[in-house]
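Section 4.2 – Deliverable D4.2 (structural model, holo form)

The reporting period included a commitment to supply a predicted holo structure for the target in complex with manganese (II) ion. Inputs used:
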Amino acid sequence: MRLQQRADEQAGNTIFWRLLGLAGLLLAAAPGSRAQQAPALPPLAMAPAPPRPTDFLSPAFHKERRERVREQLPPHGVAVLFAAPVRNRANDVNFIYHQNPDFYYLTGYDEPNAVLLLFKEPRTVGGQVGVTEALFTQPRSAAAEQWTGRRLGSAGAKAQLQLQFAADNKDFASAGIKWADFDQILFTELPADTRDDPRDPADLHNLVATFREQSGLPANYSADRTVVYKMLKRYGVSNAKDVTAYLNNLLKDLPGLAEDPSVRAYLAARTDAERQKAISPNPPSRYDGATLGEIMDELRAVKTPEELALLRRAVRISTAGQREVMRLLRPDMGEMEVQGLHEYVYRRYGAEFQGYPSIVGGGANACILHYEANDRLRLDNDLILMDCGAEYHGYTADVTRTVPPSGTFSPAQRQIYELVLAAQDAGIAACKPGADFQAPNKAAQEVVAAGLLKLGIIKKKEEFRLYFPHGTSHYLGLDVHDRGSYGPLKAGNVITVEPGIYIPAGAPCDPKWWNIGVRIEDDILITANGYENLSAEGPRTVADIEKTMAEPSALEAWKLPELK
Ligand code: GLY
Ligand code: MN
Ligand code: MN
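Output (structure tokens):
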């Protein structure tokens, strides 16, 4: 790897910055220069941090969640979770760091190069007896913190995150963990896209390598296996034909997978009973990349009150963005400006980021489901689809509104819009505890199919898929497509209901429908008796949208001059 491609883990600086620093040093050292007598700076790391928000998930929340995982571990089991890798954007610039949501959920730790172990029975770690949870973190470093920001360090993690045991990551390899004593070693995806920093002997790359080596994980165990196990468990019996075809195809790229006992047994199975046995071997395999994911699916899908407070905040901020943009929108605006307005509102209300790249597409671009370019210059009066979600302290909203930039729907736009709205109403009405996860989807599909037939856009019912090619729902939380079992709905689930109709130019229907793309997406909390629409503050009916668009905006006067 080229040296410039990495942020310097130790000092956070790069060749470019080092050269700048060197130039400064040479100047400062020139005879007679005043800088020569300048006192040394105290390490930033030691200075008190200015105030920051305090409404994050509490250490007690994370601790309780860890206990819930431990309860479900098998006897003599251990769960191993890794922090997310730092991902490179280009040259020496990385993407903004985003923690592995499972890791965040169980720790609150928001830095890279860390590993968490949860033990079913108390163990001895780093000489400390009776340890049930151990976090290894990146160390504090005055130099690194001057360049890239504060670190919690192991002492900080232990005190502030209330971990029973925490140590620096460099001590993971020598912590004396007796891996041979575990009957089962559970993990989720092993990070596969780590980069080894040769100057940091305990970065994520090394932590994963240490785990592989000390736990005796078979050398050909790839991260893909976790995905395969998940697929086998979820669909291996109900949809054996497709899964078998998929697996056989995968084996061409991953021949090592053929040696996996579960995969081998599954492919050799001739009956569903044999397939079931292959998927759930008895005794279970020692290295288990599937079960921990299932535990996390169940836990994360049911939101606690603390999580709901943050999720509600994220959704409210997102609907505030939708409302403000509706008031500001004009046909001469471009998609990027509209995106910027949403994201400004997010920051204004303390949401650190967006939970996924904002989708802001007008007309033809509204027909691209996960459109990200957002570079159309003038919207004119093509419907603009705005699928935008604020992320507040880790929790993301996912709200879509589709509106006419002029403030008034044309007759054709209105007909499609009202059809999607009726489909969404039907989908939302199907949300209640005990309902099949697909119930909202099925209800919305029925309405869309009947409506498209009635408008003459399709000739046969099943052709609705042409214009409504996705499902309506996914779980929502720390991930926009959050963890969950996709089983029956439960109180505490938060799911989206998001039907859409997308009719690109050239579609086999009357051209008056072309370039109309509509999605309406709301965030629905399943309650004890039914549901609550968390995003109800985002205008949704034609009347409410047109009324909101006629209102003045608080940002109206905030007109930036042209850049000549
Ligand atoms: N924003 C992505 C989705 O709606 O699933
Ligand atoms: Mn969604
Ligand atoms: Mn969305």
